[in-house]
Predict the 3D structure of the following.
Amino acid sequence: MTFEFKLPDIGEGVAEGEIVRWIISEGAAITEDDPMVEIMTDKATVEITSPVTGTVGKILAEEGAVVPVHSVIVQLETAEGETSPAPAAPPAQAAAPAAPTPAPAAPRPAAAATSAGNGGGQVLAAPATRKLARESGVALAAVTGTGPRGRVTRSDVEALLQAPPAASAAAPTYQPRTFEAGGSDVVPYRGIRKATGDQMVRSMYTAPHFTYVDEIDMTELYALRKQAAVIGGEQGVKVTFLPFIIKALCAGIRRHPSVNAELREDEGNIVVKHDIHVGIATDTDNGLMVPVLKHADKLSALEVAAEIQRLTEAARTGSASRDELTGSTITITSAGSIGGLFATPIINYPEVAILGVYQIKDKPVIRDGEVVAGKIGYLSITLDHRCVDGATAAHLMNHMKRLLENPGLLVLEA
C-alpha cells in the first residue's frame, strides 16, 4: 500500500522547509528509521528518517524546493496490510543552524554507501561526517560506527585515518587537484548557504555598521593562560584565550548593556537582554556554524572553556541540538588560529554587536621607557549604529582592555 509521507512539523513556528538533499532514490528499498531527506527551515537543517519499511515510490519535491509543512513530499510503498503510522516521522538530528545563525552548507550527492562493515544497510552519518569521509577518500561503508544505531561519527572516520596501514597495503598517495583551463565548478546557491547569504544581506543593508578596533597587550594574560592550561589539561579541558576574552566581554556588557540587545523595528523597541548568551562562530566542514554559550556571565573561565570545547565539537560533528544553535544575544568570531591583523565582521542579525578576536603576536612594546617583547593582539567590535553610540563602543573596549591587560582584575568582576 502507498504511504504518503508529509513534511512534519519540525519546530515551533516553522511553516515551511527547503529540500536540501534527498538521501534516498526512487525504487530503492528503505527500512524504518533510515535517513531519507535533509530539510532546512529558518531554525536548523535536520535529517528526517523513514517511518516505515518498504520501497521508495515517487519523490514529489525536488531538491531546492520550498514546501509547506504537512505537504506530501514522497510516497513510500509498504507491504499489503501493514499499518502506516499516522504522524510523519520526527527529524533525526539537527545538522546545522540556519538563519539567523550563519551556517553555510552545500548539498551533497544522494548516493548512499552499503557494506557489511555497517551491517549491510544504509550508512548512518551526519552531513559533516560524510563530507570529511569523502574529502579524505574514506568509504563510509568501511567504517564501523560507534554512534547510536551504528551511526558513523567524525571520530570514527578520524580513527580510521590515523590507524597504521596494513602491512600488505600500499600507502595511499594524495595528489593536489588539477584544474582544467577554461573549466569551472557550478555549486547550487541554495540551502543553508542561501539562507546565510540572505541573512547577511539583510544585516548589512538594514543595520548601519560601524567598527571600533583596539590593540591589547596580552602579555600577562599569556602567562595566566599557560597556568590555566595546565589545570584545564588535568580535567581534559583545552584552555585558550577565548574564555578570558568572553569573561571580559561579559564584564563590559554589565557596564554597557546596550550592546547585548536586538532592535525590533516592527514594535519600535530596542530590547536589551538581561541574559548573556554568546554565539561562538565555529569553522566546520560544513562551513560557519554558531553554537551558543548560554549564561556565559555566570560561568567561571574554566567552565567557559569546557563549554566552548563541548559546543564546538558538537557543531563540527553535526550533533549540536537546535537549542545549542539558537538564542545568542551577542556573537564572537575568532580568526586567531588562522592569522591576519583584524577584520570587520557582519553583525549576526537581529543582534546589535559582534566581537572579533584575532591573532596574538610577538611585538616590541615600551615599558618603563624600555623596548621589550610583548604579546600583542587586536580586538574589534562591530555594532548597529542605530542602537549603540560610538562612545559606548570605546568605553566597552576600554574596560575590556583594562581587564585583559591586568587579568587579575577579572576576579573582581561580578
Summary: The radius of gyration is 24 Å.
